[in-house]
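note to self: the first set is below, dont mix up w the second
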Amino acid sequence: MSTSSKAVVSFIVGAAVGVAVGYFLNSDKKDELVEKLKDQTDKLKDKWRKRKDQFQDELENELA
């Protein structure tokens, strides 16, 4: 792929991302989506925290 065609593809992708972000920011469902993302993030944090604690306990038991 030549340099000019890469530039055109990059421009098109950038424009598409810009349109999507603009649509999202003006969407009525923005707050609902952000809240869902926060909930999912909290669930993932809890899940990883539990796995970390479990791993620490197992490691301490092996070293004891």
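second set (the one i keep forgetting abt)
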Amino acid sequence: MRSLLILLVLVAGGFVLTAMFVAPKQPELRGWYETNACPHLDKISPQICDPIRAAKGSEPI
């Protein structure tokens, strides 16, 4: 039971870290996170999706 809980925490942490560090640099992943994950992550902390929003604003047209 303990290892399942640790696995769940690691997966959740990886999901949040991906949103903060990997997704802003990958357009497809950034779009998915912004559409599907950010509404839920904003309930935890709006700062999680700030790098995604900042990267979207600095995209070359």
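remember for set 2: The chain has a mean pLDDT of 91.
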